[in-house]
Amino acid sequence: xxxxxxxxxxxxxxxxxxxxxxxxxxxxxxxxxxxxxxxxxxxxxxxxxxxxxxxxxxxxxxxxxxxxxxxxxxxxxxxxxxxxxxxxxxxxxxxxxxxxxxxxxxxxxxxxxxxxxxxxxxxxxxxxxxxxxxxxxxxxxxxxxxxxxxxxxxxxxxxxxxxxxxxxxxxxxxxxxxxxxxxxxxxxxxxxxxxxxxxxxxxxxxxxxxxxxxxxxxxxxxxxxxxxxxxxxxxxxxxxxxxxxxxxxxxxxxxxxxxxxxxxxxxxxxxxxxxxxxxxxxxxxxxxxxxxxxxxxxxxxxxxxxxxxxxxxxxxxxxxxxxxxxxxxxxxxxxxx
Length: 337
Ligand code: ATP
Ligand code: MG
Fold this sequence. Notes:
By secondary structure, the protein is an alpha/beta fold. The chain contains eleven helices and twelve strands. The longest helix has 17 residues, at 146-162. The two termini are 24 Å apart.
C-alpha cells in the first residue's frame, strides 16, 4: 500500500486593508489540513504600488502562473491606477468567474436553502475594453466570439456534471442583441446537446433579474456573458446577505485564483474584526478545484457549524469575536472532523 504525498504549491497574495487579515485567518486554518501545501507570498495592490511603483509586479504574475492555485485577499485600487487583480486575471486568462449563491443558517440571507452558482464569462462582452468617443457621445463594443461562448458554456456543463447539478440556465437578451446574444444562445444549445444528462433552459436577463427575487430556488447553474453576470452576481450576493460571506473563483485552463468578493474595507482594516468567512469559502473553492473535494467539504462543514451556532462570529454577523477568534473556532472543528 503506497501512499503518495502530494504537495500543492500555492501563491498567496494578501493585498491591502483587511486582505492580509482574512488571509492570515484562512491560512491558519489550513495548517491542520490533511493536505500538504507550500506557499509563496506575492504582492499586489496599493501598498505594493507605494513600495515598488507597480500594483502587480511581474514577479507576482510569474509566481502565480507557476503555482497550482492562487489565493487572493483584497486590494485597494486607487482611481487612475491600473488594477492589479484585473491585470492578473488577464495574464492568466481566467475566463470564468464563478460565484456561488448559498444561504448559510445563522447569516442574514433573504431566502432559506439557496444553493446555486453563477458562471460568468470574464474576458469579453461589453467589458471588452473597446470604447471610443463619437461626435455626439461615445460607444462601447460588445464582443462575443463563438470560441469564448463555447468554452464558458462547456465549463458550466462540466461544472454541473462534476458537482451533481441538474440544470444549466443560459441568461441573455437575444431578442434585442440578436447577433451577439444570438451566438451566445445558439452556442449554449450546441454545447447542451453534448450533455444529455443535464437539463438546459434559457431566460432573458430582465426576467432573470425578477426570478432571482421571486423564485431563486429554481436556479442551479446559471451561465451568462460578462456584464449580465456582473450584475446578477451582485444580486445573488444580496440574496444571501453580507459581503463578508461571499467567495469567488476565477478559473482558466491552466490556473485558478480564489478570492473573497469583498474589497479591502478600509473602514474596518487594522481592527481585527473582518469576517473571515468569504476568504475561508474561497479556500474551499480552491480545494475543490485542486480535486480535494472531501477536504473542501470538511472545511465548509466546519464553517457552517460556526455560523449556525452564532457564538463565535464577527460583529457584522452580530457577534463580538475577532477575525482570529472565529478562525480558531473553525480550525478546531475542522481538525476534529
Ligand atoms: P474597496 O475599494 O477595496 O472595495 P470598499 O470601501 O468598497 O473597499 P468593501 O470591502 O467593498 O469596501 O466593503 C464594503 C462594506 O462592507 C464596508 O463597510 C466593509 O466594512 C464591509 N465589509 C466588507 N468585507 C467585510 C468583511 N470581510 N467583514 C466585515 N465587513 C466587511
Ligand atoms: Mg468595494
